[in-house]
C-alpha cells in the first residue's frame, strides 16, 4: 500500500520535576543517559538526528473549483473521498474566486498533498499538488476527468452480429440435458470435483444475447473488434485521478482482507451504499446526450479475459406481469469496452461510444442513433471468458452484472465466484455425478458478498462518475475503473465525504531518561491543527508511575501545570491507554488554543516535570538520546514494557540515519506489541 500522509501528534512522556525547575539539560546526567540508551537500543545515534521529521511549506491557492459556491479552502494529506485516513493540514474560510495562502506541516516522507475547495453543502473538489509548489488553480489544467470529451460523433453506426451469453449457454445446456443441470469444474484449471447446478434449469436466460458493432463512419471514430472508439488527446489531471482511485478502493491491505490474504475487502462500500456509492442496482440514468466511457485503470491480471457490455431500457416499457429482472434478461447487450491485462497506472487514452438501437429486438445491419433517450436506465455486465476458451464448465467463465439480482446463479459457482461470498452463506450441491452425493459449501470471505450482490459499483468525485468492477474471487472492486464521461446524470448526492479530521502529531516521552525502557508511552500528548489560527492539544496516554506534570503548553489553561494521573482521573501509579487489559480512556482530555506558532514549534515548547525524581524533560537536543520524539499520529505507540525497537524494527535504522527508514512508524512488527490508536 502506498505511503500514508500522517497527522502531527505529540506524544509526551511523563517526567517528574519540581515545579519551577529551569529547562536545563545539565539537570540530566548525560553520561548515564547515554549509557542507558546505548545499552537499551544498541546502536549509535545520528549526530544530526532531531527526533522530528517534518516538511514545512506554503502554497497560494485560487478558490476557483467547479462548485456552486465555496466557503473554505483546505490542504489535506490525501484525497478525502471514501477515505477515513485523510486529514486536514490547514483550513481557511473564503469565498469563490478568493486567493488564499496556507502553510502546512507534513511528515518528512511526503512528496505530494491534496488541496480542496469545499462548498456550503460540504461537497469537496480536490486537486493534487507537489510539496514545494507555490501556486495552484483548480481551473489551470484539466482536472480528474474531462466530462464532455467528444464534440463530434459518427454520421452512421451499423450493428454487427451476436452470440449467446454464458448464462444463455448454461440455460440451453441445462434444458437439453437428460439430468436438467449444468456441470462445472471446481477449479479454474478444470481440475477438482465436478459440481452440478440446476439454477439455469428454466428458460429465463435463453434469449440473452451479446451484440457487436460492425461499422462506423465520421467523427474520427472507428470500430475495433466490435467496439466503437477513438483516441483521446486530453489525458487530464492523472495525479488527482490516481489519488481519488487509490484511496477510494485500495487494492490490498486494510482491516478486512479476502480469505485471510492481502487483497483489500471493499465490499462493504458497495453493500451498504454509503455516502460515496450509489444504491440503484448500479444503474446510470441517461440525460439524453451521447454516452461515452473512458477506461482509467485495468489493475487485474485477468483483464484480457474481460469484455464489458451495456444495455438500456425504459422502466415504463416493462410488460405487465413481468418482473424487471426477467425483462432485463431478454434485453440485447452491446459491446462497450474491452478489458486489458494488469496495468496499475492511471491513463486516459481511448474513448468508447454507447449508441442506441431502439427498444425492439435488434438485427444485424440495423442503424443506430447516437444517444440513448433521456430517463432510460443504463446497466452494465462483464463477460469473463477465462483463457478465451468459452468453456462454460470452467468456474471462472461467466457474465456478471452491476445489478446483483442478475448474479444469483453465477455467484453460486464454487471455486471462483462463490469464494467472494460471505462465510455465513452456504449451499448444498451435487458433486462428482448428477446423481452423486450432496456436499455443503460455505462462502470464504468475512463481510463478503451475498448471492444477489452486484459485481459493478459506481462512485463519484470532482463532478465525475466512475464504475468499479470485481471480476473474480476477491472483493476489492478495483479490477477495472471506468470513467463515465458524458450522457448520464452526475451522481451529485454521493459527493459529500464524511467529516474529515484535522492532522495531528504525537509527542512521546520517557519519564526517566537514565532508566528509560523506551516503550515511549510514559506520557503521550497529541496536537491537532484546527485551522491557520488554532491548535487542539490533548493527553493520549499515561504510562508513568511517577508524579508527572505537563508543562510549557503555549497558551494552555486546562492541561498546563497538571499532573497526568489527575488529568485522566486515575490513581497515582496506575496507567491509562498503555495496557490492553488496563485502564482505557477513549475520551481524550484536550483544549483548543489560539496561536501563531507552527505545529512543530508548538510541540517543541511542551515539556514534563517528573516530581518524583526532580527532573525536567524537554525535547532532546540534536543527536541526543530519544527520551522525547514527535511522530505522525498513525504511529501506534508500543504497549507497556515493549521497547520501540522491538515493536518497530525500522526505528533503529532511523536512529542511526535520520534519512533512512523515514516511514518506520507505519510498520509495526506485531499488533500484539502496539497499542491501538484511540483518537483518530
What characteristic shape results from the CA principal axes?
elongated
Uncertain spans, ≥5 residues at pLDDT below 50? 1-27
Structural class: mainly beta
Strand content: 25-35%
Largest sheet at a glance? 7 strands, mixed
Note the total helix count.
9
Mean pLDDT: 88
What is the helical fraction, as a range of percent? 10-25%
Cα-to-Cα separation, first versus last residue: 19 Å
The strand count comes to: 35
Q: Radius of gyration over alpha carbons?
A: 30 Å
Brief sketch in words of this structure:
With 680 residues, the protein is mainly beta.
Characteristic key phrases:
single chain, 680 residues, mainly beta, 7-stranded mixed sheet, 7-stranded antiparallel sheet, 35 strands
Strand-helix topology:
Layout: E1 8-10, H1 30-41, E2 54-62, E3 72-76, E4 87-93, E5 99-107, E6 112-118, E7 124-130, E8 135-137, E9 156-164, H2 166-176, E10 182-185, E11 194-197, E12 209-217, E13 222-224, E14 227-231, H3 238-248, H4 267-272, E15 284-285, E16 291-297, E17 306-313, H5 324-330, E18 333-338, E19 350-354, E20 377-384, E21 398-401, E22 426-431, E23 438-442, E24 456-461, E25 464-469, E26 480-486, E27 501-502, E28 504-509, E29 523-531, E30 534-542, E31 548-551, H6 564-568, E32 590-594, H7 599-604, E33 607-610, E34 615-617, E35 628-632, H8 644-647, H9 650-656
Parallel strand pairs: 2-8, 4-27, 12-18
Antiparallel strand pairs: 1-35, 2-5, 3-4, 3-6, 6-7, 9-12, 10-11, 11-22, 13-14, 14-19, 15-20, 16-19, 16-26, 17-18, 17-20, 20-21, 22-23, 24-25, 25-26, 28-35, 29-30, 30-32, 31-33, 33-34
